[in-house]
Amino acid sequence: MTTLDADAPPILPNLTRRAVARGCIPAPVRIAYTLFAAVILPVYLHAYGPTNLLYFCDQAILLTLVGIWLESPLLISMCAVGILAPQALWIVDFLGTAIGLPLTGMTAYMFDPEKPLFLRALSGFHGWLPLLLVYLVHRLGYDGRALGAWTALAVATLLVCFFLMPPPNPDPGLTPVNINYVWGMSDRAAQTLMPAWAWVTGLIVGLPVLLFAPTHLVLRRAMPAAGRPTP
């Protein structure tokens, strides 16, 4: 017969929280999101090409799809940390542009009649995906490792976009240019307020400090913690 060490740390609370987290994403949510991904991913690949997947929001689509099926608090939390604040800005800019008062110009493409209506309609996911991520984090719990993981992914992505992807173009068509705004807020011309290296450095430092970290703090305080089994 074995006995439990009275001084050993309790493992039941952690295991219980993990057990609650598993299996709690309803099947209709999984199916609906999978159908959405099955439409938007091939359409985007055909229309824009694979470099479009370098956008943070499109990376979040993929990570959310995997996270939903694996029920991974880390993957879902990464997406929440990474895009909740930027997508809130997208929503504000979209509403402002709709009434003639754009904030940043980042949603001007949504009102460009030269771009196919179907593609612009699919881009409406920027408005509802943040809400879905909040729901999923609430169901699975928030994993505090998400801040470091998403920041590492974001910095690597920004460097790839700046050094390897096309800069702004006066007539880019559907070709992704200025991905993640590494050259400024316009896809047609680079910003001229500062040297290009200063702008991208500002993004590398500013996004984690001004957007990702505050979102992390809010989620850590407002959401239940993701349970982890004790080794």
Question: What characteristics describe this protein?
Answer:
mainly alpha
In short, what is this structure?
This protein has 231 residues and is mainly alpha-helical.
Describe the fold and architecture.
The protein is mostly helical and 231 residues long. Helices cover 61% and strands 0% of the residues. It has eight helices and no strands. The chain has helices at 12-21, 27-48, 56-70, 73-98, 117-122, 125-140, 146-164, 196-222. The relative contact order is 0.15.
Number of strands: 0
Question: Mean pLDDT across all residues, rounded?
Answer: 88
Rg of Cα set: 20 Å
Beta-strand level of the residues, as a percent range?
under 5%
Main β sheet profile: none
What layout of secondary structure does this protein have?
Blueprint: H1 12-21, H2 27-48, H3 56-70, H4 73-98, H5 117-122, H6 125-140, H7 146-164, H8 196-222
